[in-house]
Design brief:
By secondary structure, this protein is an alpha/beta fold. The chain contains 13 helices and 9 strands. The strands form 2 sheets. A 6-stranded parallel sheet has the order 3-2-1-4-5-6, with helices on both faces. A 3-stranded mixed sheet has the order 7-8-9. Helix 9 packs across helix 12, helix 9 crosses helix 13 and helix 12 runs antiparallel to helix 13. The longest helix is centred in the middle third of the chain and has 29 residues. The structure holds nicotinamide-adenine-dinucleotide (NAD).
Length: 307
C-alpha cells in the first residue's frame, strides 16, 4: 500500500513532517469532499457527523470516525467544521470544541453563517486562548470534491497563518479578509452582488427576446460591451448560450436557489445590523424567496423562468 505521508504535498523535502491530526465536523455535501481531500493530502482526519450515512462515507474516504464531537477533537492540531447554520456552529463550538480540543489547536469554521455569530464564537474561542478563523467558501459541491474551493478568511494574522496550510489542501485560493467575521462579510457581500447580477442578466435576456433580438446575438454584443458580467459570460441563464452551465441541464445541479436565499437572508440581516443601504439586495431577497418556495433545489439561474 502506498505511504500517504510520502505522497503528501505537505511533506517537506528536508524530511520535516507537516502532516496534522485534524477533526472534521459536518460531513455533508460539502464537508464530505473537503475531509476526503485532507486525507489525500496526508493528514489524519477524525470525523464526526450526526448522520450515520455521512460517517460511513467519511470512513470509506479514509477518515477515522467518532460517535461525538468531543472525542473527535481530542489531541488534534486543528478543527474544521462545515455545518448548516450559525445556531449549530455556536452549539458545537461552545458545547464540544472549546475547552475540549487542545488549546494549541487552530479552530476553522468553513460554514456560511451570520457575521455576528461568527464574531461571538471567535470571541468565546479567544477567551479560552484558542486561535480561530471563519473561512466560508466560494464554490459548490464539485469544487469541494475537487479541492478547488476559494476560502475567504476572517481572523488575526497568526490564526490565518496557522489555518492556511489546512485550507490550502482543500482549495485553490485562501485569502485573508481581515479580523474575525470578515470572511463571512466577504461571502455575503459577494453573493448579494451575484444574486443582483443574475437577476439583471436574466431581465436583460428576457427583454431582448421580447424586443425581437436573438439570445445568441444579444450575448455576442453584450458579452463584449459594458453589460458584460460573470452571470452572463461564465454562467449564462439562457440554455445553449455561452459556456456550459446549469441552464443547459434544465437548471439542475449548480448552486441551489435555497442556498442563495439563505445567503441573501444573512446579507439582509447584516445590512440591518450595520446600517448599510441595500435596496437591490432586499429586492433580490424577495424575488429569490418567491422562486425558492417551489424551486429551492434548482440552480439559482433558473430565476429567469419567472420573468
Ligand atoms: P449539508 O446539509 O449537506 O451538510 C451539513 C452536515 O452537517 C450534515 O451532514 C449534517 O448531518 C451535519 N450536522 C448538522 N448538525 C450537526 C451537529 N450538531 N454535529 C455534527 N454534524 C452536524 O450541507 P452542505 O451543502 O454541505 O453545506 C454546509 C455549509 O456549507 C452550509 O453552511 C452552506 O451554506 C455552505 N455552503 C454550501 C454550498 C453548497 O453548494 N452546498 C456552497 C457554499 C457554501
Amino acid at each position: 500500500m502506498q505511504d500517504r505521508r510520502a505522497a503528501s504535498p505537505l511533506a517537506t523535502t528536508n524530511g520535516e513532517d507537516t502532516n496534522m491530526k485534524i477533526a472534521f465536523i459536518g460531513l455533508g455535501n460539502m464537508g464530505g469532499g473537503m475531509a476526503a481531500n485532507l486525507v489525500k493530502a496526508g493528514h489524519s482526519v477524525r470525523a464526526f457527523d450526526l448522520s450515520e450515512e455521512a460517517l460511513s462515507a467519511a470512513k470509506d474516504a479514509g477518515c477515522q470516525t467518532f460517535s461525538n464531537a468531543r472525542e473527535a477533537v481530542e489531541g488534534v492540531d486543528a478543527v474544521v467544521s462545515m455545518l448548516p447554520n450559525g445556531e449549530i456552529v455556536k452549539k458545537v463550538y461552545t458545547g464540544d470544541v472549546i475547552g475540549h480540543a487542545p488549546h494549541a489547536a487552530t479552530l476553522i469554521d468553513c460554514s456560511t453563517i451570520d457575521v455576528a455569530t461568527a464574531r461571538e464564537v471567535a470571541d468565546a474561542a479567544h477567551a479560552e486562548g484558542y486561535k480561530m478563523v471563519d473561512a466560508p467558501v466560494s464554490g459548490g459541491i464539485a469544487a469541494a470534491a475537487g479541492g478547488t474551493l476559494t476560502f475567504m478568511v476572517g481572523g488575526e494574522k497568526h490564526a490565518f497563518d496557522a489555518a492556511e496550510p489546512v485550507l490550502s489542501a482543500m482549495g485553490k485560493a485562501v485569502i485573508h479578509a481581515g479580523d474575525a467575521g470578515n470572511g463571512q462579510a466577504a461571502k455575503i457581500c459577494n453573493n448579494m452582488l451575484l444574486a443582483i447580477q443574475m437577476i439583471g442578466t436574466a431581465e436583460a435576456f428576457s427583454m431582448a427576446q421580447k424586443l425581437g433580438l436573438d439570445p445568441q446575438t444579444f450575448y455576442d454584443i453584450s458579452s463584449v460591451s459594458s453589460g458584460q458580467c460573470w452571470s452572463m459570460t461564465s454562467y449564462c441563464p439562457v440554455p445553449g448560450v455561452g459556456p456550459q452551465s446549469p441552464s443547459d441541464n434544465e437548471y439542475k445541479g449548480g448552486f441551489a436557489a435555497a442556498l442563495m436565499l439563505k445567503d441573501l437572508k444573512l446579507a439582509m440581516e447584516a445590512a440591518k445590523r450595520s446600517g448599510a443601504s441595500t435596496p437591490l439586495g432586499g429586492h433580490a431577497r424577495e424575488l429569490y424567496e418567491k422562486f425558492a418556495a417551489d424551486n429551492g433545489a434548482l440552480d439559482f439561474s433558473g430565476i429567469i423562468k419567472t420573468l
